[in-house]
Amino acid sequence: MSPVTLHAELAANLAEREARGLRRSRRLLESPQRARVTVDGRDYLAFCSNDYLGLAADPRLAEAAREGIDRYGVGGGASHLILGHGMAHHALEEALANFVHQPRALLFSTGYMANMGVVSALVGRGDAVFADRLNHASLNDAALVSRAAFKRYAHNDFEALERLLVATPARRRLVVTDAVFSMDGDIAPVATLLELCERYDAYLFIDDAHGFGVLGDAGSGTLAHFNIASDRIIYMATLGKAAGVAGAFVAGSDALVETLIQNARTYIYTTASPPLLAHALLTSLQIIALEDWRRERLHALIAQLRDGLAASPWQLLPSVTPIQSLLVGGNDETLALSARLAATGLLVPAIRPPTVPQGTARLRISLSAEHQAEDVAKLIAALVRHA
Question: Looking at 290, 325, 360, which one is the last position of a domain?
Fold first, then answer.
């Protein structure tokens, strides 16, 4: 195919996506990530980010980052296994392991890289991965890259999962799931999943990107929320959402972490993240643990929103987390509703396929401890007006 033909085909594909209401576009954020932002030259009240505890622009994290620069410089400079694993990374790994009550933790540059690294390091040909159909794309991609048999079951259909586990001849079985599903906001019933894993000799990989910092005692995550601990569980959480900075970590046994250091390609073959970020995250962990008022405000805002939209013609999906999804249905209708809100200074993203299943386009309302009750009241009033 000639370059001219290739570019013409790409342009046609983009036009088709545009016609179906599926083309995505980027906004330009001109301010810190807060409840009130400046985007494309205009001020908005935003319900868009995963900054659930309002820490992304916290001045204490900025000061810790500056201190990290003074101590360690800016770049990591090398991979962790060459000369990039610094004192800041080491201190953060120890603090994270303690925070989530696990023997050890291992830092990754992103949650996507953590999921890819873990799954491909632990399973391969002759093994099997079992995944909820609403899992994050990174878990699905990780399963495909691993070359293990990839089996998906309908969301929270544990009878279907059990049938798959009964039927598999796989040597090693790995069940992978979001802890808090990123587009619906519901929490996986971890106890049920763990019981199935125990019964059928499988391991359970929990992606707690949206539960860490928000759920559990002192914000230590979904496992603490359910008071669950097991050697069969492999735990991952991200550090760019509630923690307000960047990166991810995997926690578990010493044998698990050592295996990932030796075999996780997304850990081995990448430059270590800037140590200043690890240093800032040490302060973030202290704030998460000590400032319970942030989670308390979130719970109050969630209850306010759900009460205020109880009579809405659109379905608010069941969720006790900061992710509150208002199911609208059609792509064009959802985009139009999001645009009407934006015109009144309210930024709420329209989420469409393939991120969510066909026919389930929605507004994904993300709440933050930075929001005030009057902010949520303003959003409720606007949605009621446009119903």
Answer: 290
**Rounded distance between C-alpha atoms, residue 210 and residue 238, angstroms:** 8
Q: Quick check: is 8 in a domain?
A: no
pTM value surpassing 0.85: yes
Query: Comparing C-alpha atoms, which of 120, 83, 99, 101 is closest to residue 281?
Result: 99
- What's the length of the chain? 387
Instruction: In whole angstroms, give the CA distance from residue 298 to residue 49.
Output: 14
| DSSP 8-state secondary structure symbol assigned to residue 372 | -
Question: What 3-state class would DSSP assign to 152?
Answer: strand
Whether residue 154 lies inside any domain: the answer is yes
Beta 350-351 vs 361-366: how paired, if at all? antiparallel
On whether both 204 and 351 belong to a single domain, the answer is no
In a domain, 1, yes or no: no
- Our count of domains for the chain comes to 2
Range of the domain at 298: 26-53+292-386
Q: Residue 215 domain-assigned?
A: yes
Per-residue pLDDT of the chain (387 residues), as tens digits, is 677 799 999 999 999 998 888 888 899 999 999 999 999 999 999 999 999 999 999 999 999 999 999 999 999 999 999 999 999 999 999 999 999 999 999 999 999 999 999 999 999 999 999 999 999 999 999 999 999 999 999 999 999 999 999 999 999 999 999 999 999 999 999 999 999 999 999 999 999 999 999 999 999 999 999 999 999 999 999 999 999 999 999 999 999 999 999 999 999 999 999 999 999 999 999 999 999 999 999 999 999 999 999 999 999 999 999 999 999 988 999 999 999 999 999 999 999 998 899 899 999 999 999 999 999 999 999 999 987
209 and 156 inside one domain: yes
3-state secondary structure 273-338: CCHHHHHHHHHHHHHHHHCHHHHHHHHHHHHHHHHHCCCCCCEECCCCCCEEEEEEECHHHHHHHH
